[in-house]
Amino acid sequence: MAVVTPAAPAATEEDKELLISGSEAVAEALTLADLDVVTAYPIRPYDTVMQAIAKKISGGQLVAEYIVAEGEHSQFEIVKHASTVGARVFCGSSGVGWMYAMECLVVTPPLRVPMVALVGNRALDDPGAFGVEHNDALVVRDLGWLLCWIDTSQEALDTTLIAYRVAEDRRVFLPLAISADGAFLTHSQALTMVPPKSKVDRFLPRYDRGDLQLHPDNPITVAPQANEDWVIEIRRQNNEAMARAVGVIEEAYADFRRVFGRGPENPWFEEYMTDDAEVILVGMGTISLPIKVAIREMRAKGKKVGLVRLRWFRPFPTEKLVAALSKASAVGIIDRDYSFGSPFGSGVVANEIRAALYNSDRRPPLLSFICGLGGREVTLEDVYKATDLCYAAAKAGKSDPKTHWLGVRE
Amino acid sequence: MAALICEVVYRGIFQKNLAARITRGIVLSARKSGRWGIAFGRYGDSPQRNGIPAKDFAIVADTKEELEQNMARYEPKHVDVTIAVDDTLSKGVESWAWYGLQPINRLTVPNGTLLMTSLQSFDSLLQDIHKKDAPYKLALLRAKASFSGLWVYREDHTEVRILGALAKIAPSFLSLDGVCQAIREIEWGSDLKVESAKKAHERLESREVKLTEGNAEIPYSFEMPKWWEMREGVTIPAIPVGKPKEAGKGYVPERNPYFKKFTTRTMRPVIDFDTCVKCTLCWIQCPDSCFDVMPDGTYDANMEACCGCGVCEAVCPVEKCITMVNESVFDDNASQWEMWRSDKERYKAWMNEKIGDKNATVRSHGFRFRGQYEQELEKNLDGGGVEITAGIPGENAQHKTV
Amino acid sequence: MAETTTFSNATQILEPFRGVKRVTIEEYFTSGHRTCQGCESALVMKLMVKAAGPRTIVLGSTGCMYVANTTYYTTPWVVPWMHTQLGSSGSAALGTAAGLKALMRKGKMKTEPINVIAFCGDGGGADMGLGAISATLTHKEYNSLILLYDNESYANTDIQLSGMTPYGANTTFSPPGKAKRLIHTRWKKNMAGLMAAGHPECRYVATVCASYAVEMMNKVRRALTIGGPTFIHSLDPCPKGWDYDPMLSHELGELAIETGIFPLYEVEDGHVKYYGKTKAIVEGRPRKPVREYLLKQGRFAHFIEEDLAYFQAKVDEMWEKWEIPAVVPFRRLDATKEALSAK
């Protein structure tokens, strides 16, 4: 139920500013959230967060069961079961590691296990590659996982706290994956405000599993085998929980701003210079950096370009996104993923937005771009090219259905 | 009718291969007269469990379109012929996948036929078979239930005798010639089996069942909750812990109210409480926790929970203390211990009568040793492969030798 | 934050049942399950929780004891029970134990020793789940018992062969045929020996058979009392897959022991202790011929003398050639020297 929190911070509790990486920021958040059980298994880039947690454990700042598993499958199963007895849990992986855990990712939503996982986005094998691609995290998009993308160390810390608040809300009880692009997670440290525990305690209640807790004092049978008489009802329940998550997320961000005095007004996506934009580019994660720089360059030359950076992919902010995009004269979606054989061979985000716009009265020309796969740098030139194609479409007044691959040697 | 829909209700595993042969045989026989057909098992019954009722279906039709019409659903909602290859199924069935008990004739259409293998009289069967709101025919083949296991098949001709009987019940779809021709060609067929089919065709006994006839009991049914009534997280309440039987003595476990296993039972244990030495073996070795502990320290098999495996008889150290008796000779699931407590003499008489019936105490629940089925069937096959009485007189306990 | 731990690795002290009359009267696994007539594995479930008592959490990996045993709304479980994935019995035990420990040591849950038992079939345990079980047996700070109920096939899915299916047995994946009488010619894994030999800090490994109910329950009680991760391997006759009259489940369990095919022993802190009829065999009582066991099962009905002889020879080897008879397949050192000098 809605958590009522007392208003603004007292003067005594100051945030402290640290120069830390995205992984370290997540570890700070987990310490503040008083995590109970965490499981680690190596795969880069996500595992830098586990290295940071291990330091917190050995340093005594975090008291939790810290288990190094023998594979991702066990890594996720262990926290799944720890969560069912009432423990706050954390886990994570990257690329094929996330795939190796797939069976366990599938079972957590119907079991209503509010685990929080960090996905350090990584290209899928083969070939073995460390660079960023969003396909790994995106495989859970249909399964009942809450799914969001972060962009900065500060967002990593804040989103981790918000993640527990949302996932562990009795109205939701769904697993939540925070996606982060490899590079910034591991290789960049940014100045990050770390709040005091007192503030976090006011924002984040204890995880209470209630009548779903597996304990001798609450004798239940969990996940008995079910035939066609039951399964569709169980799916229907999951769908309802995902729908309820929308309100819970907005509530959590509003509360976050009250308690910590920062955080976005719009939880769902960041809008950069979109107010007067003729062309709006859309992307997820750190791709926003080169786009923002390019936008400033282009605006200096008089081109009114803006950016929408999606934070939440599940639940998908359909109405809000349609409202934000339909005012532009052309929209360009830059996917850092692929969906081979999909409509127009577009990426996943482009096809979802196309579907979202289908019923809206005003449908600006929509262009689809695939760029930066396998960690390939997204250059300013890529962004300029995309923008020019968008202007051309805006002029023609119709979309070019073809998907453009940017930055490929041709 | 332009299509013939048959269901075979049978004992899981024990009759899995038998049922498959029957439904296959129906389709292949009808094919001889140019019909189209399909044979399939009820998906929800798979994976099957020993003894737990299961269903196979066979549909034959004049045209492919008529066949599709009858296939366009999870399973047939009504059948022209219900075939039950074990007469203890006449008490109704609770399959592996259902909630609640279903009468054996539930899907049989008005004026359809319920075909059973049985040595019982029509009247004694109709004490068990539930009443129906329309008349139908009851047809009987004189034979005991044919049980074998997964790997070794009991070649007692039951499958061909059913086909021969069907040629009499639905001649427009299965002509006797078609059946005989199909049996000759099929991998498990033989000339001797053709003879068996013909004899069964001659000897089938049949009679009308009137609206007034049958067991009047209303079977337990289960109300499915709505999606929002179900607890989230695929979670259901556990079973509460049990209580003493009475006055703080004995023990009766709580039992799941939604699945009672007794329709799995083909034999039930009859207990001589006077000779019981209270060794606890039946209670502790029962896989279904069906024994209630009585205040006097004896053990009463709960007839709603007992599935008739017979382990209790096998482990009981006292001669004749626990005896497995054919389910068909019982009328209810009442407590034997209560009967014994209220009138020991009457109980002894009742018990001796049940155990005394050798046909009822002969056991045949699948493989016991290599060569067993051949030994059993030799003498029977000499007579042309009919009137086979399955079972091994005295094989499982000396004192039961006929 | 300083660690304020009020939690120790305390376990419930479960004294052995001294005689069948002393066995707990309550049932914690009751009717409602849909297993086969005479299902020995269902009996193992019942005895397992009878031995463990009410303050127990049970995790069940996919298999017969999940699908047949616990269907929606028709649970037989009195104690809390949860499904886990086919290969996850090890992870389920570890995760549940870790969750309880974390909450107790941090004062978020009343501190008490709660038994954690995860069970798996031979497919889930000896095939798919082997890695996770092995990992769990190295986590000595978490108390849990992993019980492998071995009915020697994937019995739930239709009797397909597993790494624990005996040599030559008929399964839907190894049907005897004209060209090939035996498709399955692998010898069964030695799970208990493997677990004991491979995990020096696992304090207790035992083999059990439900035909000896009291001893079986006492091994469970010992495993839960001694603490840390423990492992029990139970051989469960399966009337469906082995093809025999369900009435004979108990007898076939006894025969498996008396023929020496399945030895009964426990390994506590590295010390091997035979018990029951196996102890008698070790002390010189002759083993029954394996044919007395094999030919009572339809799955071996296709065996010819040659197959029976091979099976007997392999079992003889277990008893006559192994350094620790029927436990570890290493040869005695002197035998090894002979073999080398012979070369």
Can you describe what's shown?
- The complex is a heterotrimer of chains A (410), B (402) and C (343).
- Chain A is of the alpha/beta class.
- Helices cover 40% and strands 19% of the residues of chain A.
- Chain A has helices at residues 22-32, 48-59, 72-84, 95-100, 102-111, 135-138, 153-167, 182-187, 197-203, 231-260, 288-300, 318-325, 348-357, 380-396; strands at residues 16-21, 37-40, 65-68, 89-93, 116-121, 146-149, 176-181, 189-194, 220-222, 269-272, 279-284, 305-310, 312-314, 330-335, 366-370, 403-405.
- Chain A has a seven-stranded mixed sheet, sandwiched between helices. In chain A, strands 10-12-11-14-15-16 form a six-stranded mixed sheet, sandwiched between helices. In chain A, strands 1-8 form a two-stranded antiparallel ribbon.
- In chain A, helix 14 links the parallel strand 15 and strand 16.
- Chain B is an alpha/beta fold.
- Chain B has twelve helices and twelve strands.
- In chain B, the strands form three sheets. In chain B, strands 2-3-1-4-5-6-7 form a seven-stranded mixed sheet, sandwiched between helices. In chain B, strands 9-12 form a two-stranded antiparallel ribbon.
- In chain B, strand 10 (291-293) and strand 11 form a beta hairpin.
- The longest helix of chain B has 16 residues, at 16-31.
- Mean pLDDT of chain B is 90; it is low at 381-402.
- Chain C is α/β, with parallel strands linked by helices and 343 residues long.
- In chain C, the strands form two sheets. In chain C, strands 2-1-3-4-6-5-7-8 form an eight-stranded mixed sheet, sandwiched between helices.
- Residues 1-6 of chain C have low confidence and may be disordered.
- Chains in contact: A-B, A-C, B-C.
- The interface between B and C is large, with 63 and 63 residues.
- Strand 9 (220-222) of chain A pairs parallel with strand 2 (81-84) of chain C.
